[in-house]
User: Fold this.
Amino acid sequence: MRKIRPLIVLLGVICLGILFFSNPPRRSLDDIQKIPELVAHRAIFDSDTPPNSISALREVFNRNPGGEAEIDVRVTLDSRFVLLHDSDLRNETNGVGRVEERAFSELAGFARKDDHGNVTREPIASLEDVFMLLREYPRARLQIDAKLKDEQGFAVLADFISSHPQIQQRVTISSGQREMLCTLSRQFPKLMLGFDPGGASLSGTYLLDVLRYLKACKIAGIYIDFHNLAQMGDSSAQRIVRQIQARGIFVAVWTVDDPEKALRVFAWGADKMTTNRISEMFSYARFAGSYVNH
Assistant:
């Protein structure tokens, strides 16, 4: 399988080129400002491995040892962290109940479901498992979408990450809880933090408020829903991205799975782009990048 993978990637690039020229996006490659770093949403690659799992992360980092993956983290009853998007265990595992009401030892007996709802042999991964994996990939990076509700949960998560100084610099905690991020920034100044404004439109006085907040709380980056920028029009989206970047803050756009939308993100000049189709988008980004650098 390893021997034929380069051939598969080459064929993928060729197919994307054919697709591009037979059905070109409405935007032009000449509009590209920057090829963003691609982030694997929920560590999804292109197989049936369950999202938010060690197998999925390993596949992503095998493909790109210096790449970044986004994972969702929830806290258990006994303050351990597990990789699950939803609180209801039935949605992603063969277990029942809520994550925060179960001890980690109980969760260890459940198995993950794949994206089709089929129960696999994949156990629920802990954050300790993930950090052990990161030791095997010294250039790999991680975005932790913290699905946490209270200050204690965030503090325990921050303390856990800080206790691994060699890995800490490769991890970003993202959340939509502004005050919580500000508190973490004061208590753990070496942590990388990212703010997710959710469905809020970044315009007018709200944008100015966000910019002041990002600077005051020393937030490293902002994670913006693609649709929030797209609805403003490309020139406005590009202007907002540049305003944020001018303050030394990176801009990540989520979640983009369509080449035409990806080209718009390239035109805006975003630093990162999260996708569920990392394999295809990686080939497309390389194709677009080769055009720009030609």
